[in-house]
Every structure is written in C-alpha cells, then in structure tokens.
Write a structure and sequence with these properties.
It contains no helices and 8 strands. The strands form 2 sheets. Strands 2, 3, 4, 7 and 8 form a 5-stranded antiparallel sheet that branches. Strands 1-6-5 form a 3-stranded antiparallel sheet, with no helix packed on it.
Length: 104
C-alpha cells in the first residue's frame, strides 16, 4: 500500500505568484524579465513562499504585468528536409518559450 499526503505549512491570500520557470538568478539576486512596450527588461524581485510549480513575489512585480516564463536558444544547420515554404525552420525537439500574465 502507499499513501500521498500534502502538509500545508502556511497559506497566503491575495498574493502575486509566478511560475518557477520565470525566475532567473544572478549571484544572490532573483529577477524576471518583464515585457514593456514589446521589449524585455530585467526586474529584481523578492521571493516568498514556493512550491514545485509557483513562487510568491513579495516585491518587484505588480498584478497585470507580463513576464517571460522561459526562453529557448537553439543553433541548427538547415537542411532541405527542414525547410518549409518560406515560413521558417522547423527544429525537431525544440519548443518555443512563452509569456505569462501575472494574476492573483
């Protein structure tokens, strides 16, 4: 037999949460990339509670801002089999990044 249990150690309401994939770190500083007028800017954030998926942001972001959740960098050599009808290059095994709208 087996059992699964969730042990809740703290609960917070009305907080800003973001996916863990959006959080980047340089030295001991956490930051995210915020999309402003079509360009990304780094924003330092202070983190709170976290789980396997999301993290609370105590300061540095406000509700309604758009952040970049992940970026993909790939280098490839285009072959005839990878060419499409002028619409771009298909890279096997690579999926795109995404944006995440911050909400409560």
């Amino acid at each position: 037999m087996s059992v699964t249990a969730n042990i809740i150690t703290d609960i917070r309401q009305d907080v800003v949460i973001i996916p863990n994939t959006a959080i980047k770190q340089r030295d001991d500083t956490n930051y995210v990339e915020v999309v402003i007028s079509g360009t990304s800017q780094q924003r330092i954030i202070q983190l709170g509670l976290t789980d396997d998926t999301n993290t609370e942001v105590i300061s540095g972001l406000t509700e309604g801002e758009t952040i970049i959740t992940q970026t993909v960098t790939a280098a490839t050599t285009t072959t005839n089999n990878q060419r499409t009808n002028g619409t771009g290059v298909m890279i096997p095994g690579v999926t795109g990044g995404g944006n995440f709208q911050i909400g409560r």
